[in-house]
Design goal:
Chain A is of the alpha/beta class. Chain A has helices spanning 17-30, 104-110, 125-132, 139-149, 155-166, 172-188; strands spanning 4-12, 34-40, 49-57, 72-75, 95-99, 119-123, 190-191. Chain A has a seven-stranded mixed sheet with strand order 2-3-1-4-5-6-7, sandwiched between helices. The longest helix of chain A is centred in the C-terminal third of the chain and has 17 residues, at 172-188. The chains are: A alpha/beta, B alpha/beta.
């Protein structure tokens, strides 16, 4: 199979996971990668569980099917643990990043990953986003956390892309807040 | 950050890329009634109109039937006209599609493929555009965001060619292509402008010096001659598609033909499949090639006119072919692509065994393993020389 990194984002509608997948793909594209970012569409209700996906590769991506065996699973809302099967199809050595105030050990147990090879990381992305952006936007600190625990995207490329591509869309204050959120996500993510 | 091979590329969804192509083409008129999953095409394009980035007159109509009617009126008046739709929207345009082609109006339509109701479904299959396959429109299908963008730009030249003068629709997969961000290389505005050129209709309704009539009553004494000419123009469009595809390649480095042939040279078995699923199929081909299996894939780009001779030639050495349709024509005899390919192969001296598989209706996922499964079936056909199951649904 071709050399892909496959990512699945879990969140609730309006939490920004579709945007997170978009921003991640742009940052990877800027650093020379081939990318796909796509959401999973269903009934549109605020708060409904949603998923978004990324494929990242050093080569042109020809696969056009869903991501069903992700190597990275990012969970923007911890209340999904009891609502959705978050580990479904994930690779044995998958990396899980969860927005929660709890520790990685506790989340490993909650996700049913005790004794499994998977790596579990946590950060309080809700708190970080409120303190930096001024509203609940957990996706931004989670991108910073992803840069910390993965090798395929760097914090610099995420920040550079955001400053470059969103300067027209957002005020300098919003850009600053998002950059701070990424930095703190990078610094504060902890795992086992 | 290292400079890499993706330099100069950007990440766009299929819909965003189409809207940008429309901006660069800057048609005289766009009449549309947005529908999922092509909504964002018109959403983005209407921003370009509002921001004064184009000179297009955007007509927001009350239905797709009216959208196509307005396109027909504007095109007959001599304007360059574009629109976009999907699924029920294309279905509601139905009677007007035939009027556009019968009046020989080079209208350009983006159809983002979506299943037809009932039951209601917003996801991808090809029942919308395949239902319109006999409406006299040129149909181009696209595997990727890049190809959808490139096809739309070429479609303008193809449709407006003085030997063609037929409407053209560019089709790509709903959500899979329309809503997925992929790498794409955009052309400069000037490059597109120069490539499509200015549209000057040879004859048009508002030409008072040379008055002409469009779509008038024609009785048994002339109707068949009209249709004969239209049919000849459609058949001839094939050569224009090839010419324009080559010219596009010379100018911009991406050459397009009638179909995309993948590792077919020495292939014993092949899958024929349209649009985005062809990419997934190619990954399966590579997997099997690594195991030494002689497999390949063929993705028709032009479906109307159907390049039957060329496709029959391309598959002439293949022993068994599976034609995969993302639509069932409910004929009891496989999907529309199957019917065309199988019929095209009839005149070959040595005919491959051919079977039909229907997949992915209403957005059902088509994965590498599904393609591998079909190749497994093909291998068995080659071994036994017999097709056990002529037609069936897969991905159920």
């Amino acid at each position: 199979m071709e050399n892909y990194i496959e990512i699945r984002w879990h969140g609730r509608a309006q939490q920004g996971v579709v945007t997170a997948a978009k921003v991640l793909s742009e940052a990877c594209l800027m650093s020379g990668k081939f990318v796909q970012a796509f959401p999973e569409f269903g009934p549109e209700r605020m708060g409904a569980p949603v998923r978004a996906y990324n494929r990242i590769s050093g080569e042109p991506i020809r696969l056009h099917c869903q991501v069903t065996e992700p190597g990275y699973v990012l969970i923007a809302d911890p209340t999904l643990i009891t609502a959705v099967n978050l580990t479904e199809g994930a690779l044995e050595n998958a990396v899980f990043i969860i927005n929660t105030s709890k520790g990685a050990k506790e989340l490993r147990a909650e996700l049913g990953l005790n004794g499994k090879k998977a790596l579990v990381y946590t950060l309080d992305a809700t708190k970080i986003s409120v303190e930096t952006i001024g509203r609940v936007m957990p996706n931004t600190p989670m991108l910073g956390a992803l840069a910390k625990v993965s090798a395929f995207v760097t914090l610099d490329s995420l920040i550079d892309n955001f400053k470059e591509n969103y300067a027209k869309k957002f005020s300098p204050k919003v850009i600053e807040g998002n950059v701070a959120a990424m930095n703190r996500g990078y610094a504060e993510v902890k795992g086992e | 950050m290292a400079i890499t091979m993706t330099k100069g590329q950007t990440g766009l969804t299929g819909n965003a890329a189409i809207a940008i192509a429309m901006k660069q083409i800057d048609p005289d008129v766009c009449a549309a009634y947005p529908i999922t999953p092509s909504t964002a095409v018109i959403e983005d394009f209407s921003s370009f109109v509002a921001d004064g980035k184009v000179t297009t007159e955007l007509i927001t109509v009350e239905s797709e039937h009216s959208a196509m009617s307005a396109c027909i009126g504007a095109s007959a008046a001599g304007a360059r006209v574009m629109t976009a739709t999907s699924s029920q929207g294309l279905a509601l345009m139905w009677e007007m599609l035939y009027i556009a082609s019968g009046m020989r109006l080079p209208i350009i339509l983006t159809n983002v493929n979506r299943a037809l109701s009932a039951p209601i479904n917003i996801h991808c299959d090809h029942s919308d555009s395949m239902g319109a396959r006999d409406a006299g429109w040129i149909q181009l299908y696209s595997e990727t965001v890049q190809e959808a963008y490139d096809n739309l730009i070429q479609a303008v030249r193809i449709a407006e060619d003085k030997n063609v003068l037929l409407p053209a629709m560019v089709c790509f997969d709903g959500f899979i292509t329309s809503h997925a961000i992929e790498n794409i290389t955009l052309l400069e505005d000037e490059e597109v402008k120069k490539f499509v050129g200015e549209y000057r209709a040879d004859r048009y309704l508002l030409d008072t010096d040379r008055p002409s009539t469009y779509g008038a009553m024609s009785l048994p004494d002339v109707y068949i001659e009209f249709k004969h000419q239209q049919s000849q123009a459609m058949a001839g469009a094939k050569d224009v598609v090839v010419e324009i595809g080559k010219e596009f390649g010379r100018k911009f480095g991406r050459t397009y033909g009638l179909f995309d042939s993948y590792r077919l040279e020495d292939a014993e078995t092949a899958i024929v499949i349209l649009n985005s699923a062809a990419g997934t199929t190619k990954v399966a081909v590579d997997e099997l090639r690594k195991q030494g299996k002689k497999v390949g894939a063929l993705r028709p780009r032009l479906f109307r006119p159907f390049p039957f001779k060329e496709i029959a030639g391309e598959l002439s050495h293949v022993k068994a072919v599976a034609v995969l349709d993302r639509v069932d024509s409910m004929s009891g005899f496989g999907g529309p692509l199957f019917n065309e390919v199988r019929s095209a192969l009839y005149d070959n001296e040595k005919r491959p065994r051919v079977f039909s598989r229907i997949y992915g209706l209403g957005g059902r996922d088509y994965k590498v393993k599904d393609a591998l499964g079909v190749f497994g079936e093909l291998e068995k056909v080659v071994e036994t020389g017999k097709v056990e199951t002529l037609q069936k649904y897969i991905t159920l």
